[in-house]
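Retro notes (design track)

What went well: tokenization of the new backbones is finally stable.
What didn't: we kept losing track of which sequence belonged to which structure.
Fix going forward: every design gets posted as structure first, then sequence, in one message. First example under the new rule, 166 residues:
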């Protein structure tokens, strides 16, 4: 059987873990995909003990973030690429994730400490890295790439007043 035959090409990757039965090439178009507001976002996060009893987390998360899931391999908990929008002047409390991430600014701006990131700029955080960010006056749209589709967001900010939108 020649390598150019359909039988050979379908068997070429048959013994490589994670490739059986999965598409090798998938397309997405951010401009054609719906943007979905994350409803009840508080249920997907963890907080310091005093925060849920002292802050209105539902009000904080309501309208806080919209997402376009461009790619997610939920079955294998594999790669994910999301496009997130945060409205102007939001200061996101200190938190960390249980996976590495790469973030690239697409529109608007975001500040991490004294560093202001504009379209084309980005950052990498290693799993467990605690950080906060402040969204610029025009809002921000970012691409987030992760090696997993299912991840945790753990807030460490214990001041309830930090969970209030401007």
């Amino acid at each position: 059987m020649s390598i150019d035959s359909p039988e050979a090409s379908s068997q070429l990757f048959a013994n490589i873990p994670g490739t059986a039965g999965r598409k090798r090439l998938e397309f997405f178009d951010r401009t054609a995909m719906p943007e979905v507001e994350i409803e009840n976002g508080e249920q997907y996060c963890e907080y310091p003990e005093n925060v849920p009893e002292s802050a209105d987390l539902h009000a904080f998360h309501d309208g806080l973030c919209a997402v376009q899931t461009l790619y997610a391999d939920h079955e294998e908990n594999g790669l994910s690429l999301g496009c997130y929008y945060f409205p102007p002047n939001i200061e996101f409390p200190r938190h960390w994730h249980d996976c590495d991430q790469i973030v690239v600014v697409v529109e608007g701006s975001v500040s991490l400490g004294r560093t202001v990131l504009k379209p084309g700029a980005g950052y990498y955080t290693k799993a467990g890295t605690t950080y906060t960010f402040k969204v610029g006056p025009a809002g921000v749209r970012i691409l987030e790439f992760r090696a997993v589709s299912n991840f945790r967001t753990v807030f460490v900010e214990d001041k309830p007043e930090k969970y209030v939108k401007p």
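Added context from the reviewer: DSSP finds three helices and ten strands in the chain.
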